[in-house]
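A student in our group prepared the protein record below, which I am reviewing. What it holds is a sequence and that sequence's fold in token form. My question to you is simply how this chain folds and whether the tokens agree. Do not assume that whoever made the record got everything right. I have pasted the whole thing underneath without changing anything:
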Amino acid sequence: MTSAQYITVRETSQILGISEKKVMDMVEENKLQAYKIAGQFLRLKKADILNLKNTGRIVNETVQYKYTAGERVKDFFYFNDFYLGALALICVLLYVIFSF
């Protein structure tokens, strides 16, 4: 048993052209046979994945969703809220220190 016989979920998603979530959903629905290595690492047989790809039963997920300006601003504040809050606190403290 070599490591080339078994591939990760990420490698499977790249070969099939679908998302990792879709691969996991297919494993949970028993459409793909998956194996746990050492009780925690999920692997799939490469031969099974290549056979599945060659049968053409998998449709590539090529849908691209637009990332709007509003979503970008929302994500900016969501992921940087700590830094923005810290910057505001520093500005307030500097104002207090230098105004008196």
Observations:
- The helical segments are 9-16, 20-28, 46-55, 69-99.
